[in-house]
Amino acid sequence: MTYYQERSGSQVAEPRIVNPVVDYHDRVRWGPILAGIAIAIGTQLLLSALGIQFVVKTSVLRG
Fold first, then answer.
1. Strand partners, 11
2. Residue 16: strand, helix, or coil
3. pTM higher than the cut 0.85
4. Fewer Cβ atoms within 10 A, N terminus or C terminus of the chain?
5. What's the whole-number mean pLDDT along residues 23-32?
């Protein structure tokens, strides 16, 4: 409690009401992270396959 002096005498200050602070623990959600990694790797493999197919097809046509 906080005490302070006034001219008329000593008074006790009213305690402030403070909300308790609750620790915030956000858990990592691994499902969306692993899904994003799987999509990224799958997209990379698909684009690589299309690129190789394009290179092979154009090299066969040329020669």
1. 4
2. coil
3. no
4. C
5. 84
